[in-house]
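Let's practice the habit of predicting before peeking. Look at the sequence and jot down your guess about where helices and strands might fall. Then scroll down.
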Amino acid sequence: MPFRSLRLLRAALLAALLTQLLSYSATTQAQAPKTYSSSEILLGLKKLNVLGSVLYIAAHPDDENTRLIAYLANGRLLETGYLSCTRGDGGQNLIGPELREQLGVIRTQELLAARRIDGGRQFFTRANDFGFSKTPDETFTIWDKEQVLSDMVWVIRQRRPDVLITRFPPDSRAGHGHHTASAILAAEAFDAAGDPKRFPEQLKYVQPWQPKRLFWNTGSFFVKPGENMEGYLKVDAGAYNPLLGQSYGEIAARSRSQHKSQGFGSAAQRGEALEYLQYVKGDKATSDPFEGIDMSWNRVPGGAAVGKLIDEVIRKYDPGNPSASVTGLLRVKAACEKLPTEAFFWNSDKSDELDELLYACLGLDLSATAQEHTNAPATKVAVTVSALNRSSIPVKLAWIEAPFIEGEFTVMGNTARKPLDELLVDNKVLVKQVSITVPTTQFVSQPYWLREPGTTGMYKIPETVEKFTWPEHPHAVHIVEGREELGRPENLPVNDILFKIEVAGVPLYYTKPLQYKSTDPVEGEKYRPLAVVPPVAVNIGGRAYVFADNQPKTIPVTLRAGKAGVKGSVALTLPQGWKSEPASFTFDLASKDAEQTVQFRVQPGGGAQEGKTELRAVATVDGQTYSRGYQAIEYNHIPTQVLFPEAVAPLVKLDLKRKGQEIGYLMGAGDEVPDALRQIGYTVTLLKPEDLTDQNLRRFDAVVLGVRAYNTVDRLKTLQPTLLRYVENGGNLVVQYVVNRGTVLPQIGPYPLTLSSDRVTVENAAVTFLNPQQPLLNSPNKITAKDFEGWVQEQGLYYPSAWDPKYQTVISSADPGEKAKESAILVAKYGKGNYIYTGLSLFRELPAGVPGAYRILTNMVSLGK
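Done guessing? Here is the structure:
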């Protein structure tokens, strides 16, 4: 490629690096190798001939319109991105107990799973989903608005979308402060991206970019009955794609159904499906959202010839023999390399697609699998490298290269190369065994946005990180500097093997993730990333440790070896006035992945203050301290994720009295409330639906239903009479919040109540006691305003909007400017017993160690005793 000056060369290379960095956003590490049908290859060839881009913008995972994304990516063949301001960290979890940062990791991977189905790419800002927000003003007091706007502009300048589309309007119709904020930011980013005076620090890497127009993707959810829709552009996103054998509605249903933690399994839609686009900014369009935009190779200087060559490949494509297209694709590649510097953006972007099409047409399979799924820095792991050519075209594997490979290799800067010069014979697998060592400087595999502490509203991106590039293949970049993390859904790949192959003398480069492969007897072949782990991980058993008296508690600490032969000591760091026996333990872990659990006896001394503090476990190995744990998040619909949370736990000392002893607990969507009840001395029996019999329930002082039980436990529709008989005969039933849609039966209480989405989002909103004599406020603990201090994220959610007079209200509170809500706790006598519904967010407060939450829950389960 000719360049006019060294300055242009440097700028072009930087652009190529950054383009490649974000092009990884469509992929996920440690997935089963992608295979292509001949019809998918043909669709890819057609897409290669379309130079257009669109960016869809909203606030959370699941906000995106998967049908429109599927249509744009596979019907219009555009690069189609979804920019989610947050990772959904503040939501609830339908499939397990993970909340906050752990939930954000799950939902990140669910978005990536959705994009693999609908063909989009995934991007993010640094905004943290701090929970439900009622106004954009509140949102912008917690988010750093300028920083989120900068991130949005960064993605726009990198990906250069022709059109922006928002999911929400910039007003209260959006229904959530984050939703409204995303639309406001999109409109500002539309202007700022093209203004060189805005965020000029980005121009070291990218150029200003002005999208053509901005739309709001409106529809029946936002439009009032009878509203005239004639002024909106209409797009039929329900068409059938014969190459994929599905309509975009069918693709969208599979895509949306990946949001399993939110319970968004969707039915396929077939037939016409109109999407409405309302003009917001930029050039107006009268008939098509991409009106006036040249999306052919003619938009690129010198690109017309490339377009003609691609047309010829498409015309001659033989679905029974895709490898016959290789020669034509190599001609396209040669023509692209002759394009001038001005074509660099699209040339670099389309080169990735072109190389992937060559990979597919040749039937290549290149992989690198480790014998273990974790590895500590400075330790070796055996790796199997395999290469397969499933075509009759001669393919040579010239070499493999990695930044940490060992053996008889040629050192290339900060990488090592193993020359091979092997001919890949049709359908014969070439296998090589190598050994690698992870550098001592490499980070553990913590998601990049969780490496350093952020704020309530913003994640922090490390400013400097390890730098690495492939010497011979500058388009394949690992980590350049902190800025390159921005916008990405997950960590930049660092455990990669670079393959150089040659076809008809033309070099092709492919990076493949180093991953662990196993065979599950039920699930079959499974892949997971090779995780870089610390020499020793430190896990504290349990979440919060609650001391209602001065008696000691046993706190288990588990040491996990990241490599063989780890020796050291572990101790607890405690606040003033607390003590542990013993002061420390020594440990000796002979083998990798070995675990040793030690038991500390901790108790508050005379100087320990009431309230919430924190303990930390710290291991010392060879003079180096380690205080992070090891947590694997495993669900079948996403790759296994490994996190390294800080080894800390809340310590709670409080004045607490309790009544009763035996608690039956029926799980709903998943929470950690049972452990909290055990912490304060109750005996908790986890119940299954089949355990809900009159005889079994009779022995419990209280029965508690977990969060969303009436949304997730289908058998409650038939077991409800049994629960109500338990109450009628003198039992105490506590029902935690239920989402107001998708309940398994229309009424969840003994008397009518109407569930709603009402909530109090300000966690420390002032509370008024409506009935000070109500036993829930007085026995066995006197509840005061202090018990509502120090709450996290929200005070409560899904409060009933109407209820029978037989229910008594207990407290009221309100968000600023709103009418007080009185249904956070509803209690009713029913027969000899008591029924309690509460929307208080106990499921968040208890694991966080909020003292008042323990006292309130204790009064609930003690009622009537």
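How did you do? The longest strand covers residues 506-520.
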